[in-house]
Amino acid sequence: MPLRILGLDVGEKTIGVAVSDPLGWTAQGVGVIRRDRPKEQITGQLKKLIQDYQVERIVVGLPRNMNGTLGSQGQKVLAFARQLGAELGLPVETWDERLSTVSAEKVLLAADVSRAKRKKIIDKMAAAVILQNYLDSRNKKFQSGEN
Length: 147
What we know:
Blueprint: E1 4-10, E2 14-20, E3 27-34, H1 39-53, E4 55-62, H2 72-88, E5 92-96, H3 100-110, H4 115-144
Parallel strand pairs: 1-4, 4-5
Antiparallel strand pairs: 1-2, 2-3
Helix pairs in contact: 3-4
C-alpha cells in the first residue's frame, strides 16, 4: 500500500496539519495542533497522525522573506524541522511557504466562509496549500522524467 506525506504549517501558536492521499496527488487539511502544551504532547500527536495515516515523509513549510532570505521565524522552523526528523525517524523536507496563508485565505473567502470559521481553519488550509504545492512539484518532475 502506498504511504502518505504529512504537511505542516508551523506557526508560533499552532501547527496546521495536512496529509496526502495514498497516491501522493492531493492534500487534505486534517487539523491543528496547539503549541501551548508540552513538547512531548505535540510529538505524541504527530506520532499518532504518522501511525494513523502511515506517513513516510514530512514536509514543513519554510517561511522566507519575499526576497528569499530566512528571517528569525524561518530559522526557528528550520530548527523545529531538524529536531522533528531526529525525534520521529522520518525524512523531513522544507518547502517554501511564501504566501501559503494568503492563498488559503483567498480560497476561504471565495467559498464565503465566515471570518470566525476562517480563523479556526486557516492553519490547516495553509498546511494543505504547502503540501499540495510540494506534491504538484514532485509529480511534475515525475511526469517529465526528472529525479
